[in-house]
């Protein structure tokens, strides 16, 4: 009798064990498929942070709007360059259309009053020289509506005036724009004042092509790459001219061997501020 009872119960026990196993497997699958916060953040596909192990270089092309032909050569490169556009240049509108078509990032290259007024005569609106700051800034931003950030064109006088700098940064903060200090002169207050306005701010590390010498440009690019490997990121400014096109062609061919990523400036701002 006991033996028959054991035999009768055996299928039930086996079935129960199989059911438990299936439940455990199912729970394991659910856990594996349900992402933890860390796993979810990796799956979103956001760019990894810049670091010495994963260095980033941002190259900002200034003075865009003056030379449409050279701009098109730069846009043809397989590099995610950032383009800073002058608001009143001859080819501003056409340049913005070309940049937009390539899906590249746009900044406003904002003319600011220099110590020597003769150094900036080709822009009809210059911040710190032509009327109230807010009105002049709004005029420039309307002409470069794609801009996600701003950097200064000249500005050696304006950048040393704390009241004007604060007023400028307050407007940028209200519009959700960040600032790149081109460092055209010593004594600039932009990044020192930016945190008080809630504006992310970076300083330019090197000018690649000023003066436009191919040998000097190559040296400065190497300095930027070395800095990115040490610090995790670097910011270089260049201009639409043949020396720059040739230099950046070489950079496009060497990014794998140099282990560096060329990234738009907004991504480096997020990592560097």
Global morphology? globular
Mean pLDDT: 86
Q: At the first level of CATH, what is the class of the largest domain?
A: Alpha Beta
List segments where confidence is low: pLDDT < 50 over at least 5 consecutive residues. Answer: 1-8, 17-47
The name of the CATH topology of the largest domain is: TIM Barrel
Secondary-structure content class: alpha/beta
Number of extended strands:
9
The total number of structural domains is 2
Helix percent reads 40-55%
Q: What is the CA-based Rg, rounded? A: 27 Å
Write the topology of this structure:
Layout (H helix, E strand, L loop, with lengths): L1 H32 L3 H8 L11 E9 L3 H8 L6 E4 L6 H11 L2 E8 L20 H11 L5 E6 L7 H14 L2 E4 L8 H8 L3 E3 L2 E2 L6 H18 L1 E6 L3 H17 L2 E2 L2 H8 L1
Parallel strand pairs: 1-2, 1-8, 1-9, 2-3, 3-4, 4-5, 5-6, 7-8
3D structure, described in words:
The chain has ten helices and nine strands. Strands 1, 2, 3, 4, 5, 6, 7, 8 and 9 form a nine-stranded parallel β-sheet that branches. The longest helix is centred in the first third of the chain and has 32 residues. It is 49% helix and 16% strand. Helix 3 runs parallel beside helix 4 and helix 6 crosses helix 7. It has 273 residues and is α/β, with parallel strands linked by helices. It has two domains: 43 residues; 217 residues, Glycoside hydrolase/deacetylase (TIM Barrel, Alpha-Beta Barrel), CATH 3.20.20.
């Amino acid at each position: 009798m006991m033996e028959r009872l054991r035999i009768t119960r055996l299928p039930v026990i086996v079935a129960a064990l199989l059911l438990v196993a299936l439940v455990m497997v199912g729970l394991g699958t659910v856990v594996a498929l349900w992402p933890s916060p860390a796993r979810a953040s990796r799956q979103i596909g956001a760019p990894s942070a810049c670091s010495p192990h994963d260095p980033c270089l941002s190259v900002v092309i200034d003075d865009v709007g003056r030379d449409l032909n050279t701009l098109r050569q730069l846009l043809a490169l397989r590099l995610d360059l950032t383009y800073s556009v002058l608001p009143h240049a001859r080819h501003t509108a056409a340049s913005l259309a070309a940049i937009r078509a390539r899906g590249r990032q746009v900044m406003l290259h904002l003319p600011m009053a220099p110590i020597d007024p003769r150094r900036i005569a080709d822009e009809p609106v210059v911040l710190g020289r032509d009327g109230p700051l807010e009105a002049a800034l709004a005029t420039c931003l309307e002409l470069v509506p794609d801009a996600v950030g701003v950097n200064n064109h000249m500005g050696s006088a304006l950048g040393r005036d704390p009241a004007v700098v604060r007023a400028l940064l307050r407007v940028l903060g209200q519009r959700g724009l960040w600032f790149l200090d081109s460092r055209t002169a010593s004594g600039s207050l932009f990044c020192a004042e930016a945190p008080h306005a809630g504006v992310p701010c970076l300083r330019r590390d090197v000018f690649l092509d000023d003066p436009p010498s191919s040998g000097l440009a190559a040296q400065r690019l190497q300095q930027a790459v070395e800095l990115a490997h040490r610090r995790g990121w670097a910011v270089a400014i260049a201009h639409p001219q043949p020396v720059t096109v040739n230099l950046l062609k070489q950079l496009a061919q060497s990014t794998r061997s140099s282990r560096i990523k060329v990234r738009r400036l907004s991504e480096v701002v997020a990592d560097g501020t």
